[in-house]
Amino acid sequence: MKKxxxxxxxxYSTNPDFRLEDEEQALETLAPEKQLLTVKMETKHRxxxxxxxxEGFIGSxxxxxxxxxxxxxxxxxxxxxxxxxxxxxxxxREKVLQWLFKNGxxxxxxx
Length: 111
Hints:
By secondary structure, the chain is of the alpha+beta class. It has two helices and five strands. The protein is 23% helix and 19% strand. The chain is extended.
């Protein structure tokens, strides 16, 4: 049986409110009409590839992944939800914005 290695560097804490990063609470997802999303195009740090970046989504990781899945399907392209960013491959700012408005994200804007 292999030993499980603790890589956090913390052996013991006397703080009763201490939590490891893995135990963080999931964010409660705001309703679509309360989300303030920004849609913009970006090429920095992406090897010259263009992506549509959706910022400002407040919610859990599964909800982010579900939103990106719907946007990717609508645009007919790839994408991902990582590092708190929603990415859709290519310049699809108008399509993404139209889909967001149509689905209740009324406070969205393009940058």
